[in-house]
Amino acid sequence: MSPTIFAILAATVLVASFVQGAVGVGFALIAAPVIGLVEPGLLPVSLLILMLPLNVYLAWRERPALDSNGALWITLGRTVGAVGGVLIISRISAHDLNLFIGASTVAAAVVTLCAPTFAPGRKAFIAAGAVTGITETATGIGGPALAMVFQHYRAPALRSTIALCFAVGEALSLVMLSFAGQITHGKFVSALLLVPPVIVGAFVSQHIHHRFNGKTLRMSVMVFAIVSGAAILYQTLK
User: Fold this and answer.
1) Most CB atoms closer than 10 Å: which of 95, 98, 125, 176?
2) Would you say 221 and 30 are in contact if contact means Cβ atoms under 8 Å apart?
3) How many domains does the chain have?
4) pTM of the model
5) Domain range for residue 109?
């Protein structure tokens, strides 16, 4: 990894971890498209490694607001979906994976923006978990399905519950990807080098997340996701 690419990725994951800490979602939507553009070989393994400690921290930070029932049903669906994600990544080329990342980023952001107000139940939690399992294991992007389910929760409950679901799911995905031979020494080292910017972003979010308008930040993340996903599609198809 060249110094220029490292600097781009470090800045990206710092911003992404701040947004995730402030809003509850956004890390993968911000980081995955940029990584896909400058260093696609790191997806999804390095992204999952970076998100795991971040989400453990966020779940712990706001643990009193955790919706344990929702987290349980999402995790059950997530376990099944992760198997599908491993099958996808083990059977498609890097070109097709980039297409999948770009398309899934744009589609997920659009769906999240357009989702109507509703009170989620067990079926919605399981479905969101299954979709997250597939997309996060295959691409590193899992937030939109969970954001859609929890978007009308209070901010602390949204952040803590989504973070716990992410952390459990990411650990599961990494185990499955390891068995599938997808985790290499280079990807692991690259992720470790990017951990300090993630820590900085999370630390900053801890002190000022309550000052932000969650709706505005959420909208900004989704717009960025759509533009970034479209850029990946353009670069892959040109």
Assistant:
1) 125
2) yes
3) 1
4) 0.78
5) 3-237
